[in-house]
Amino acid sequence: MDYGADLGFTFVHTPKVIFGENALAEVGTLLSDLKASRALLVTDRFLAEKTELVARLRKAAAGRIAGEFLDVVPDPTAESIDRASELARRVGADAVVSLGGGSAIDTGKGLAVVLTEGGRVLDHEGYHALPKPLVPHLAIPTTAGTGSEMTMVTVITDPARGQKTFIGSYFLHPAVAVLDPTCTRDLPPLLTAATGMDAMAHAVEALFSTLRQPFSDACALAAIRTIMAFLPRSVRNGADLLARGQMLIAAAQAGSAFSNAMVSLNHAMVHSLGARFHKHHGTLNAVLLPHTMRFFAPDVGERFVWVAQAMGVAASPADPVAAGLAAADRMDRLNAEIGLPRRLSELGIPREALAEVAEMALSDGSIIYSPRPIAEAAEVLSVLERAY
Ligand SMILES: NC(=O)c1ccc[n+]([C@@H]2O[C@H](COP(=O)([O-])OP(=O)(O)OC[C@H]3O[C@@H](n4cnc5c(N)ncnc54)[C@H](O)[C@@H]3O)[C@@H](O)[C@H]2O)c1
Ligand SMILES: [Fe+2]
How many other C-beta atoms can be found within 10 angstroms of the C-beta atom of residue 12? Predict the structure, then answer.
């Protein structure tokens, strides 16, 4: 085992998780348990207008929703969260219900901060600065996914700085995560694939991280096995509710893993590319992950054997570097199997921008958890160049 006598860690796992087909129908009871009678619903126009999810949610909430913010934007901006907060204050909201992908759930988290603490969302930027519990937040993911329903972080885009920033606090964990496979049924194949690879990156990066520990390891390894088995199935047939449900569980486990162990270089590059070029978070993670794995192949040791085995790749404990490289190759093939792009050049990102992106990644909050310290932008650039 990879744990030494100096092992020490904190593992926090707060949301109550409700799983099952049609778990959405429980929302009214769950809000009642939270003593919430005037929740603000946070979702986006597509989900509100093109799916039946919001209608089902309204019915399930049985009058406990006091207002609806339907203008969630992808990679939520501080300004959009502040607008949601104004509406929440106007209707006297006492809880938040977020329905959607990571963007809706992160908007819900930012809104819960402002509703409790006042001011604007960026006033509360940073880690562990919130003084008390927030209004309760019930999160319902419709992608599988970011795992944001399980994490203590909200990722906020600040267009003024052209960067993604964070609020992190144990108080940001939603009170309840409702995992209902019917909520991801209509997610198109490409978004299914890309969001699934975001969960994969969370699991792999949590296993690499300097903050790795036994509980997050267990969640991460379980997530990798499940994603290998059920992501291709979910992409092939979106109506396969068994596969959809397993992917929701894997995304939540991977979320729990990285909320405790953090992510590192892969996400640092993804955050920087996402803020600069507005490309989808999961797609960027998928494209970069095999290259990040190759980059760290000499540094991860036995953990790469675990990753390879969880992926169904033959690996010998005697040669962890070979295991890492084989796992990276398998990751690249998985991207191909599920129809994802495999190069940054396919995403319309100009090569000349990579040096600037490498500099941005060096100042991203995640990079410090990398399995070996990264001090030079040139090292980050070498990974970006290989992925181009
Ligand atoms: N807080 C965290 O712990 C955490 C972790 C990882 C990522 N993130 C953040 O999450 C965001 C990305 O979230 P995402 O990948 O879930 O995408 P998203 O929430 O931005 O949604 C992407 C698109 O998918 C559509 N969509 C969502 N569910 C659908 C469904 N069931 N059917 C049809 N269309 C659907 C949305 O309308 C949207 O157009 C980024 O801002 C990223 O920074 C946060
Ligand atoms: Fe992510």
Answer: 11
Domain range annotation of the chain: 16-183, 189-387
pLDDT (0 to 100) of residue 197: 98
* Pair of tokens at residue 12: 């926090």
pTM for this predicted structure? 0.97
- Nearest to 7, CA basis, from 280, 215, 259: 215
Ligand 1 site, residue 272, Cβ cutoff 6 A: no
- Please list the ranges in the chain whose pLDDT falls under 70: 1
The angle that helices 265-277 and 354-362 make with each other, rounded to 10 degrees, is 130
Residue 1: predicted pLDDT:
61
Q: Which residue's alpha carbon is at the smallest distance from atom 16 of ligand 1?
A: 101
The enclosing H or E element of 155 equals: strand 153-158
What is the average pLDDT score of the chain?
97
Question: Given ligand 1 and candidates 155, 179, 285, which is best to mutate, with the most ligand atoms within 8 Å of its CB?
Answer: 155
State the pLDDT at residue 39.
Answer: 98
Give the position, in ligand 1's atom list, of the atom nearest the Cα of 259: 3
Give CATH superfamily name and number for 189-387. Answer: Dehydroquinate synthase-like - alpha domain (1.20.1090.10)
Q: Whose CA is nearest to atom 9 of ligand 1?
A: 102
pLDDT at 286: 98
